[in-house]
Write a structure and sequence with these properties.
Blueprint: H1 16-28, H2 32-39, H3 43-50, H4 58-68, H5 72-90, H6 92-97, H7 100-108
Helix pairs in contact: 2-3, 4-5
Length: 109
Amino acid sequence: MTEIVARRPKRAPTHPGALLREDVLPAANISVSAAARALGVSRQTLHSLLREQTVVTPAMAVRLAALFGTSPDLWLGMQGAHDLWHAQRALTNEVRKISANRVSAAAAA
């Protein structure tokens, strides 16, 4: 069986909301209100993303890609990397308890 070794950087990948807040909106010279209008979402929805309190959904990724000339995959990839990094750390102890033997034993039963 081939073993896959996951890359585990010490610093969490940047949340896409932080990238929007710190780099994308200022570079585009667009306010949060104007961006929200252009995206077709409320200011509260966009603020929540910028505060990193919500995630980039597929629908939001499509909207962001259309507004900023990127691809939805970029936004979803950033969100996925961020979420996976946090999940790996949150579940470290549980994952250690899972073994290939348990899977093999369950399949044999």
